[in-house]
Specification:
Elements: H1 3-18, H2 20-41, E1 43-44, H3 57-68, E2 76-81, H4 85-100, E3 106-110, H5 116-121, H6 128-140, H7 142-150, H8 154-169, H9 180-194, H10 203-207, H11 209-215, E4 218-225, H12 236-247, H13 250-253, E5 258-262, H14 264-276, H15 279-298, H16 301-325, E6 328-329, H17 336-358, H18 365-392, H19 400-431, H20 445-454, H21 456-476, H22 492-499, E7 511-515, H23 518-529, E8 534-539, H24 548-561, H25 576-592, H26 602-614, H27 618-629, H28 632-642, H29 655-661, E9 668-674, H30 681-694, H31 701-735, H32 738-761, H33 773-793, H34 803-823, H35 828-860
Parallel strand pairs: 1-6
Antiparallel strand pairs: 2-4, 2-5, 3-4, 7-9, 8-9
Helix pairs in contact: 1-18, 1-19, 2-16, 2-19, 4-12, 6-24, 7-8, 8-25, 9-26, 9-27, 15-16, 15-34, 16-17, 16-19, 17-18, 17-19, 17-34, 18-19, 18-31, 18-33, 21-32, 21-35, 25-26, 25-27, 31-32, 31-33, 32-33, 32-35, 33-35, 34-35
């Protein structure tokens, strides 16, 4: 071992024990400064985009696209769902109007599916075949629309039904089958009214069913909220303002319309909320359990209090460093607090257990402290340095989230070591100087040692087989790149976004390509649309459609045939008495032709409902008329607008549409949506690869997702190699033995393979949250293995029956408690991280307590020299001069 650094560490412990107040008073002042610094300069950043370096090519492309289309960043999207398209439209329009006036919470608001331009020019945006189909449906309904245009009420609709009944009398019952869908909706509305429920009839579903089928009762309100960056949830105020406005809208209050929300802003806010959910109860519970383990490990409050205070001081100092050096904690680095507690407490336990084992009534405390320092400082110093190297190896990677974690945790391990060598001895000098020696060997450890010594070869064979299976597991374990799978599925924003995934019109994993002009956009759209991985392609060129002359001719012809519907003279609304008379007339008319109708004819259902309404109160009759005609005037107005379409040119496009589909330099945006097969990582990767083969410049959420996955894997491959090399160099420099360093690394490799095996058995996928178990696995594995190897080098031939094993076990329990707080979190990403950390800890314990001793006994040649249970290493009593 290198003597000078070791002597320096021992000297530091001796001086801290001799001059406790000289250490503790500046330590207290520094803690105060660190707390103040954290309160002022340390923030929590929940934006997942900030987890990756801006130097990455895909990030630069994404940022460039965001600068050209800023309205798609920092969004809050209200998703309006209703039984009918009209109710969704009315509610979305009202919501947008009220939010546009709320300048305190809203910067801008848009309704992409609702605009005068789409009302007027919507038919031109369809294919020629679709235009013909829609117009045919309108013309078929013209006999019904004529009476309705002059009397847009329940009475007018009943007149139209009477005309159908007249057709049945003339032997045309079979011709009504084309109207069965529409008449079925009318029947349902009348049945609901007879039962006392207001269910407005969807006239769009009657007149343009193919168009309504695309969206149904679904509309979006896109909101760019005002963000409060001083709040932990910057968009929470805007989201709550939107929900308050929505709750006051009539159809929402009636329960017929529901307004959900999603978007990058609420997703980010909910991420922080879920991370902090139940934080205090969990922290208190884990803290109490941590104290229990310390009590069992150290058996005296005089040892426990110094260890806890040292741990708290180290955590505060590390947070202060994070505030000064980085200024924020991201969604990954925020977990460093748990990692710090889990790792740093090991140093205090190791030191205190060894001290406890040496303390005698006939020995001065200063001598005992020195003896403990001689034995343990080199071990915990090497462990801390190796762990720090493992974490700092992540600093150069471009996975910023883990790079920042590596910097904070790497420095934190050195801070923890310094606190263990200064603050802990000072506190022990004040609180734990009395005689407290007791047997601190691990109960049953000596018998376990003897068993491992006798059966070392079979044990090693079993571990070799496990390692082979673990290697297969490590090579085949899946990686889940979907960021939604690390979020709470029951949160509003995530649940809403997930519900939109299967619809090509709302799937969030899209790609965008910018091309120079409309012909290029059409050409690229055709090529991309032919790919089997692509469900839909939409571009700015679609809003300046081709074949407009043919479509306009069809529309003009239909307009001429429907002249009676346009600009009619409208009769006054009917009275209850007039409605009742109309209901009775229609009821009797349907009854007169009932035998000519097929059994499943919706006219029979209408007649039955009218029979009930004929005896209903006036209020029920008026409600039925309202349900039938509520959306009729607006539908007739939209129909007239659609029949007055004009040629669309690039100059005639509305500004909002131009802003969404054309860049400021005139490029055209082409948006590509994947098929349902792209819901998993492999499918999404195929989609990105296929689109990039045609358009290498494509960007968007799908590219960001796959780019993030590749960046994460590359970062961990790079960091794992660098960390292993750094740890190996440190071990070689300190231990000055290739064999000793190799023993630590072999045990570390075994821990890694066992972790992969356990994860595979439990069906755990690797994601961008739980993958940080790797640096912790390196840290814990190195520290635990270093203790046994260094004891073996000093001549100790008992491992599980030693104070070191006791310290390792209780360090593992305290570490496991810290990880358990993550595993029971409601945030899926955090929970998966905690679970994988627990598995890695179990793998480390198996490797350290079973595999490594078997290897060491094999190298010793025999287990015959294993000491009896009363064994105490001679080094325990050694007091260096």
């Amino acid at each position: 071992m290198i003597r000078s650094p070791h002597k320096g560490l021992v000297w530091l412990v001796d001086q801290s024990g001799r001059h406790p107040f000289t250490i503790l008073l500046p330590a207290l002042l520094l803690a105060f400064v660190a707390v103040v610094g954290c309160s002022r300069y340390l923030s929590i950043d929940t934006d997942t985009d900030h987890l990756f370096s801006q130097s990455l090519r895909w990030r630069q492309q994404s940022l460039q696209f965001d600068r050209q289309f800023p309205q798609f960043s920092d969004t809050l999207t209200a998703v309006v769902r209703a039984p009918t398209a009209e109710e969704a439209r009315v509610t979305a329009s009202a919501l947008a109007r009220e939010l546009a006036a709320d300048h305190r919470h809203v910067r801008s608001v848009a309704t992409p599916g609702i605009s005068p331009f789409l009302d007027r020019e919507g038919l031109l945006l369809l294919s020629s075949k679709e235009v013909a189909g829609v117009l045919d449906t309108m013309l078929q309904a013209e006999p019904l629309l004529g009476p309705l245009s002059t009397d847009p009420s329940g009475r007018g609709l009943l007149k139209g039904i009477d005309m159908m009944v007249e057709g049945v009398r003339r032997g045309m019952a079979s011709d009504l089958s084309a109207y069965n869908g529409a008449l079925g909706n009318v029947a349902q509305t009348l049945e609901d009214a007879a039962a006392g429920h207001l269910s407005p009839l969807s006239w769009q579903a009657l007149l343009t069913p193919t168009l309504v089928g695309h969206n149904g009762g679904l509309e979006f309100v896109l909101i760019n909220p005002v963000l409060d960056h001083d709040a932990l949830e910057p968009g929470a105020a805007a989201t709550q303002a939107m929900l308050r406005v929505a709750a006051g809208l009539p159809d929402v209050k009636s329960g017929r319309v529901k307004v959900d929300y999603t978007g990058s802003v609420p997703l980010s806010d909910e991420e922080f909320q879920s991370l902090t959910d139940r934080a205090w109860p969990i922290a208190i519970g884990s803290g109490l359990l941590l104290i229990v383990w310390l009590v069992l490990a150290l058996r005296s409050w005089r040892l426990i209090v110094p260890v806890v205070l040292t741990l708290v001081a180290g955590l505060i100092y590390t947070l202060g460093f994070a505030a000064v050096a980085i200024g924020r904690l991201n969604l990954i680095s925020v977990a460093f607090t748990v990692l710090f507690v889990g790792l740093a407490v090991d140093f205090g336990i190791q030191f205190s257990v060894r001290l406890h084992a040496m303390q005698r009534s006939d020995r001065r405390f200063a001598d005992t402290l020195h003896a403990a320092a001689v034995q343990v400082t080199g071990q915990i110093g090497l462990a801390a340095l190796a762990i720090s190297c493992g974490f700092l190896a992540f600093a150069p990677t471009r996975f910023t989230g883990v790079a920042e974690l590596g910097i904070i945790a790497g420095v934190g391990m050195l801070v923890a070591l310094l606190c263990t060598l200064t603050i802990l001895p000072a506190l022990l000098r004040l609180l734990a100087s009395g005689p407290q020696h007791a047997d601190v060997a691990l109960p049953g450890g000596a018998r376990a040692d003897a068993w491992l010594a006798r059966h070392r070869q079979p044990v090693l064979i079993v571990f070799v087989l496990l390692a082979l299976v673990g290697l297969w597991s490590a090579l085949t374990i899946p990686f889940d790149a979907n960021p939604l799978h690390t979020k709470r599925a029951d949160s509003e924003a995530t649940r809403t976004l997930t519900s939109l995934m299967d619809d090509p019109n709302t799937n969030p994993f899209t790609m965008n390509v910018l091309v120079k002009d409309l012909p290029a956009a059409r050409n690229l759209g055709a090529r991309l649309g032919a790919l089997p991985e692509v469900a839909q392609v939409v571009s700015g060129a679609d809003f300046v459609p081709q074949d407009q002359a043919d479509k306009l001719a069809q529309i003009e012809q239909a307009s001429d045939l429907m002249i009676a519907v346009q600009n009619p003279s409208v009769a006054p609304p009917p009275t209850a008495a007039e409605l009742r008379a109309a209901v009775q007339d229609s009821r009797d008319a349907i009854a007169s032709v009932a035998k000519q109708l097929p059994p499943d004819s919706p006219l029979l259902r209408i007649g039955k409902a009218l029979n009930q309404l004929a005896r209903a109160p006036d209020a029920t009759l008026l409600m039925a008329s309202t349900a039938l005609s509520r959306f009729l005037p607006d539908t007739l107005a939209q129909l007239n607008d659609s029949l007055s379409a004009e040629p669309i040119t690039l100059r005639s496009l509305p500004p909002d549409l131009v802003r969404d589909w054309f860049s400021t330099d005139g490029q055209v945006r082409v948006q590509v949506t994947p098929t349902a097969q792209a819901q998993n990582t492999a499918g999404l990767r195929r989609f990105v690869k296929a689109v990039h083969a045609v358009a290498p410049q494509a960007v968007g959420p799908a590219v960001d997702t796959i780019g993030a996955a590749d960046t994460i894997l590359e970062a961990f491959e790079q960091a794992a190699i660098c960390a292993t090399i750094a740890i190996a160099v440190v071990l070689l420099l300190v231990l000055r033995s290739i064999r000793s360093a190799a023993l630590v690394l072999i045990a570390l490799l075994m821990s890694t393979l066992l972790t992969a095996l356990l994860a595979r058995l439990l069906g755990i996928s690797i994601n961008f949250a739980n993958i940080i178990a790797l640096p912790l696995l390196l840290g814990v594995g190195v520290s635990f293995n270093v203790y046994f190897v260094m004891n073996w080098r000093s001549g100790q031939n008992q491992f599980l029956g030693s104070p070191t094993a006791r310290a390792i076990l209780f360090s593992a329990l305290t570490t496991g408690t810290a990880f358990g707080t993550l595993a029971i979190a409601r945030h899926p990403g955090t929970a998966s991280m905690g679970l994988l950390l627990l598995l890695s800890l179990l793998a480390v314990l198996l490797s350290t307590f079973v595999f490594l001793p078997a290897v060491l006994y094999t190298l010793s040649g025999s287990g015959a020299s294993v000491s009896p249970p009363a064994f105490r290493n001679a080094a325990d009593d050694k007091i260096a001069p």
